[in-house]
Give the backbone structure.
Amino acid sequence: DPVPAQVHESLSADFGEDRKLFVGMLNKQQSEDDVRRLFEAFGNIEECTILRGPDGNSKGCAFVKYSSHAEAQAAINALHGSQTMPGASSSLVVKFADTDKERTMRRMQQMAGQMGMFNPMAIQFGAYGAYAQAVSIGTVLSTPM
């Protein structure tokens, strides 16, 4: 990693991300406490939220936020694919949660697509492509017709 550790730490602190996990394929009967117990072995958990439908029933997935990136990574390494919960159709999924930034990029790409300006190149470039595209959309929108 060419970026000095302290710079990297401050970058992730700014975004507050890359320590938040998405957990899928949970048993729908598992509570926040159950999930917390499963994950607390790997570090200090700041938040644990089970995603629920409008009826209040668990969707079988959750977000778990650790106090550091290293703890989150350790949980992924240890738990992803490690076990199948009773009633779940496949083994536990543990991955980094989508950051707000990535969601914003995707939304911009969808909007661009709806405006008929979707650029297939943006897919290859990932975030940078979406950013460049957003800049060009911004230019189009702010240019007087």
The first helix runs from residue 5 to 15. Residues 80 and 94 are 5 Å apart (CA to CA). Confidence is low (pLDDT under 50) at residues 7-16, 122-126.
